[in-house]
UniProtKB/TrEMBL annotation, chain A:
It comes from Haloferax marinum. Signal peptide: none annotated. This is DUF444 family protein. Residues 58-68 have a biased composition (Gly residues). Residues 56-93 are annotated as: Disordered. Residues 83-92 have a biased composition (Acidic residues). InterPro entries: UPF0229.
From TrEMBL, chain B:
This is AbrB family transcriptional regulator. Residues 555-607 form the SpoVR-like C-terminal domain. It comes from Haloferax marinum. Transmembrane segments: none annotated. It comes from the Archaea. Pfam families: SpoVR (PF04293), SpoVR_C (PF24755). Residues 15-352, 486-553 form the SpoVR protein-like N-terminal domain.
Length: 439, 669
């Protein structure tokens, strides 16, 4: 009970009402999110109520530094009713609530939603760290002596050796028994006593008590045997039989910490034929892939390559916005990717993903002669080509097809087609599931 | 007074505030206020956010909505936008919370503000409507509710989801109550019980069909049913929808596929949430008045009476400018200015009335006959009263034992050497209510200098209309000496007893106020698809403002029939005043009300439809299209919505005849 619970419940309620992940990826506003925090719009979280139509009710305002003129517009025009509204009058312009996720949660949610199970591969031994002091040796500096263990072993030994001395003494008071009889009786009763101890004690039993009991049975029936725990409780731990062989010294465990690193190369055709809608489709496909892989690996780095006939590396912020006029030579991007990967992200240490997107248009023979050999040459967990071609396939756009035909069976090459927002989820699924099965 | 004692910072802060708390309470009472005793608590930043989320209390029933409020509060606060200065709850004793990080000036301001709120809680009749019913102990009530609902949630026979869903449904209706009446009166509305099916009852009697037919023939049964149905009709719409549902609501039982009686816990939750809705209603109804009231007295105590002390005054001024300077329609500012306006107009009327009784002065020659500078000089506060300090107590004594402006008991103690009274720090201690009224007389304040002069002829004429002793005074001096300087405050206290925001604005919002604050009304233009300024006229602005405050600024929804269509369906009606409902929201509410009714639910309302062609034509011609109003009934049967044309007889019942909140000018764009 309390506000913490209420907050927790609110989060749960919010999660139930957050925009469906698929819908968010295909149609939602990706712009509110950053590389490390994903903000999914929440559909109306608060309870509904009877209220006036926001537009019809109008209102009262206060002019700053003067009374405004009648007819003066206030704020931006509203979207026309009927334009892209699912009967949500009154909701537009309302406060936006977001359900916030980190990439890890995003990856988890996407796994769940798409039924994926991609296990990131550990690649690089980053460092050997001293772990907890959990390894043990028989010698060592005094300060690392595992006293707890020594004490435990001693205690175990004591418990093993300990017996109810009084009880055995009573046994010596049975009429007509000898020390050997008592010893044998003790062994039968699992009392761990030595004959020497019995001999030693024998002489101390007063003679007038030697016939207290007629038999062992009678004695057992009348004298209560105490357990070791009872005796320790009663008498305290007088001494613990420490032994040299129980001494253990702790030293830290050496852990080889494998960090799974991933580098994602995003390649995008920015040539003149890539129009606004196509660009948006690329962004919708690439961004969730980036989030997903960021969430899956311990450490993720991204390389963004834009290309027309030439290729150049850019920052993420510019990546989806660039437009250029030139022709298209896809191999230029792969050449640059190859260079960057070799130089900065050795295959031995990095998981590599190379994602390229474009409208499949390429200069003649470039795909066959240059791109395909490069894709074979560049070691990567996955090569993907996303063809964005709203409005159908043009005649000279054969890059995707050729790649698929030639490399489709390689296991680490996948081609996906996105011609409308609805295809985005399928493409993401196709790409990620190829990686998952290629293991 | 009690403070949290378990943290050192809070404790230190508490000790520092001991004196301000004691003295603010005393000053407030001297000024004629009558606050409930207030317990002050020092809390940290996070606790403050929690209290705000919980509506000013420490314990509320478990619900995600508090979590949402808390989350939002923290987020607004992150950007420094919603710095919380005070939170005080309406209770006897009231509880106020001070944030330990506030400056001393802030704390003092909060304390004076809180004392005024507490007076308002105690003396405003809308608050009284709840607090006068039986034992008033809000914190205990809310705590009891919290524990009861917690128990229902813990109960293994009831799922947490069910409880929460049920609460959700009731909360959707928290404003559809009859807030102008007490919770008890609102529940007492007479309406017949929904008749149980008499035939099926007879069937259950286990008598043979023959006998039954013999004794209860069909004609007789039809008559009975008809009579019962008539009796069950709701003659006047029931505004307290929650109470109605409490009496007649059911729940849909999945297993048997029909509506069955509510579980006892559901009835209990309904009762509790309804009680809370009535408890909080008064605050929602008096926001402008109450905030303005607190801001007015805070400003008087802190600024004019220098409760802040001179060195803290600058920070105080800063504090106040932050509170009052918030953009948009600010209830503090609107309320405070209206209270000041009431004070000034009352004082002015008092002065004018006295002057009109001077020989030779009439409403016709008032402006020429009266030397306003002279009047202003005569009204000036006696310097002995104005400049009270420890050195000058003898001058006070010299005024004589009958001077009503002096608190003679206190003065005697000071004169006989009682050092516990620090006249320099608290000069008001040796003054009476009359003395303080003179000391803070509004018409002599610099900002009100021209106010007296601006009196309208119509007002003067009105004042003199029924005046008989109009030659009572020989001179202006004589008349002014007789002016009751308490008139303003006396009137203000009367008004705070009986008004709520709607009546307050209706009575006191003036043209002058609207103009000088540059208020304007705006409406949505269908043809340009944006909001536009529709009017700067006083009447239009006032109309819109009243609209925003009437019925919590929400549409009025009432129960019109509990046995609609003779099928036990609930019929709610939106009392249409020219502004349409947010239909999507309304549908959301219906879905939830279904959980409370167990049978189909209906809502009557009016929509506006625009013909696309007409909108297009209007846009081209630069005018607004005329909507077609259509009365409809939205029905929800538990799984689907359907929309029907509304029966004309019913349409008549929900349409308000003469109200029009539309401020669109004829020639607009």
């Amino acid at each position: 009970m309390g506000l913490r619970d209420d907050l927790e419940r609110f989060r749960e309620v919010g999660e139930q009402r957050r925009e469906d992940l698929k819908e968010f990826i295909s149609y939602g506003d990706l712009g509110a999110s950053g590389a490390k925090d994903i903000k999914i719009p929440i559909k109306v979280v608060d309870l509904p109520e009877f209220r006036y139509d926001r537009l019809d009710m109008g209102g009262v305002g206060q002019g700053k530094g003067g009374t405004p003129d009648v007819g003066q517009p206030l704020g931006q025009p509203q979207p026309a009713p009927g334009e892209g509204d699912d009967g949500e009058p009154g909701e537009e312009g309302a406060e936006h609530e977001y359900y916030e996720m980190d990439p890890e949660q995003f990856a988890e949610a996407l796994d769940e939603e798409l039924g994926l199970q991609l296990e990131p591969k550990g690649k690089e031994v980053v460092e050997e760290v001293e772990g907890d002091f959990t390894d043990i040796t028989r010698t060592g500096p005094h300060s690392t002596l595992d006293f707890e263990r020594l004490f435990k072993e001693g205690l175990k030994r004591k418990l093993a050796m300990d017996f109810d001395e009084d009880f055995v003494r009573e046994a010596m008071k049975v009429e007509g028994v000898t020390a050997d009889d008592v010893y044998r009786w003790c062994r039968e009763n699992n009392i761990l006593v030595s004959l020497a101890w019995i001999d030693d004690e024998w002489s101390r039993i007063p003679d007038d008590e030697r016939d207290t009991w007629e038999s062992f049975e009678e004695m057992e029936a009348n004298v209560e045997q105490t357990t070791a725990v009872q005796r320790i409780r009663r008498d305290g731990l007088k001494e613990i039989p420490f032994r040299r062989e129980d001494e253990r010294y702790r030293h830290p465990e050496i852990i080889e910490k494998k960090q799974s690193n991933v580098v994602v190369v995003n390649i995008r055709d920015v040539s003149g034929s890539m129009r606004e809608t196509k660009r948006e489709l690329v962004e919708r496909t690439f961004t969730p892939l980036d989030w997903y892989l960021t969430g899956k690996y311990d450490h993720a780095e991204f390389v963004y390559i834009a290309h027309d006939a030439e290729a150049w590396e850019v920052e993420r912020d510019e990546f989806f916005g660039i437009r250029s006029g030139g022709g298209t030579r896809i191999s230029s991007a792969y050449e640059l990717a190859n260079e960057v990967l070799d130089e900065r992200y050795p295959w031995r240490e990095w998981n590599r993903y190379v994602f390229a997107a474009g409208d499949s248009e390429n200069s003649s023979n470039d795909t066959k002669e240059r791109v395909i050999p490069l894709m074979q040459e560049i070691d990567a967990n996955l090569h993907a080509y996303v063809e964005t071609q709203p409005g159908g396939t043009a005649i000279n756009a054969t890059h995707a097809e050729e790649v698929e035909r030639t490399l489709g069976d390689e296991g680490n090459v996948v081609v996906a087609y996105v011609s409308q927002p609805d295809d985005v989820i399928d493409a993401i699924y196709r790409i990620l599931s190829t990686e998952a099965t290629a293991e | 007074m009690s403070f949290r004692r378990h943290r050192r910072d809070a404790q230190k802060e508490a000790a520092r505030l001991d004196e301000p708390v004691r003295e603010a309470g005393a000053l407030a009472r001297k000024l004629g206020l009558d606050p409930y005793p207030v317990n002050y608590w020092v809390v940290n930043y996070d606790e403050m956010n929690q209290l705000i989320a919980y509506g000013g209390f420490q314990e509320r029933y478990p619900h995600w909505r508090w979590g949402m409020a808390y989350d939002r509060q923290r987020k607004t606060d992150q950007f420094g936008m919603g710095k919380a200065f005070e939170i005080v709850n309406n209770d006897e004793p009231a509880n106020a919370f001070l944030q330990e990080s506030n400056s001393l000036a802030d704390q003092k301001a909060v304390i004076t503000h809180v004392e005024a709120h507490s007076d308002f809680f105690n003396r405003n009749q809308w608050f009284g409507m709840f607090s006068d019913e039986g034992q008033f102990d809000a914190a205990a009530m809310l705590e009891r509710h919290a524990q009861a609902i917690e128990r229902y949630i813990q109960n293994p026979d009831v799922s947490r989801d069910d409880v929460e869903k049920f609460i959700d449904a009731v909360l959707c209706l928290e404003d559809t109550i009859d807030q102008h009446r007490s919770i008890r009166e609102a529940a007492e509305d007479k309406d017949g019980r929904i008749p149980e099916d008499i035939r099926s009852q007879l069937k259950n009697l286990n008598i043979s069909d023959d006998v039954r037919r013999e004794v209860f023939d069909d004609e007789w049964l039809d008559q009975i049913e008809e009579a019962e149905r008539e009796a069950a009709k709701i003659t006047a719409p029931r505004k307290d929808v929650v109470a109605y549902i409490r009496e007649h609501g059911m729940r849909f039982d999945e297993e048997s596929g029909k509506a069955v009686a509510m579980e006892p816990w559901q009835m209990d939750v309904l009762d509790m949430l309804r009680e809370e809705a009535y408890y909080f209603a008064a605050q929602k109804m008096t926001k402008v008045m109450n905030e303005g009231w607190a801001a007015y007295w805070e400003s008087l105590m802190m600024g004019d009476e220098r409760f802040a002390g001179t060195d803290e005054f600058i920070t105080y001024a800063d504090h106040q400018s932050r509170v009052l300077g918030s953009p948009g329609l600010n209830p503090y500012k609107l309320g405070k200015e209206l209270w000041e306006y009431i004070e000034n107009t009352t004082n002015r009327a008092e002065v004018a009335e006295k002057l009109l009784r001077v020989k030779g002065i009439t409403w016709r020659n008032f402006r020429e006959a009266v030397d306003f500078d002279e009047v202003q000089r005569l009204l000036r506060t006696d310097p002995v009263i104005d400049g009270v300090n420890a050195e000058a107590v003898d001058e006070l004594a010299a005024l004589g034992p009958d001077d009503p402006r002096v608190d003679h008991e206190m003065l005697d103690r000071v004169l006989s050497g009682d050092e516990s009274i620090d006249v320099d720090a608290y000069p008001w201690k040796v003054l009476s209510y009359e003395g303080l009224a003179a000391r803070h007389y509004s018409l002599v304040k610099p900002q009100n200098r021209g106010f007296l002069r601006r009196i309208r002829r119509s007002e003067l004429e009105h004042l003199s209309r029924y005046m008989f002793d109009d030659d009572l005074y020989d001179s202006v001096e004589e008349a002014i000496a007789d002016v009751d300087k308490c008139a303003g405050w006396d009137r203000m206290r009367e008004i705070r007893e009986s008004h709520n925001d709607v009546t307050f604005l209706d009575a006191f919002l003036t043209e002058e106020f609207v103009r000088s604050n540059h208020y304007f009304a705006y409406e949505y233009s269908q043809s340009s698809r944006q909001f536009r300024v529709s009017s700067t006229e006083y009447e239009a602005v006032k109309k819109k403002l009243l609209f925003q405050f009437t019925n919590f600024g929400k549409p009025t929804i009432a129960v019109y029939d509990g046995n609609f269509d003779n099928r036990g369906e609930l019929l709610l009606g939106h009392q249409y005043n020219g502004v349409i409902l947010d239909v999507r929201q309304a549908r959301g509410v219906l879905e939830r009300v279904y959980h409370l009714w167990g049978r189909p639910v209906n809502l009557m309302t009016v929509t506006k439809e625009f013909d696309e062609h007409e909108v297009e034509v209007a846009r081209r011609r630069g005018r607004e299209p005329t909507p077609v109003e259509r009365a409809i009934r939205i029905r929800y049967d538990g799984s689907e919505f359907s929309v029907h044309d509304l029966d004309p007889a019913l349409e008549e019942r929900i349409a308000a005849s003469d109200i029009d909140y539309d401020t669109k000018p004829d020639d607009w764009l």
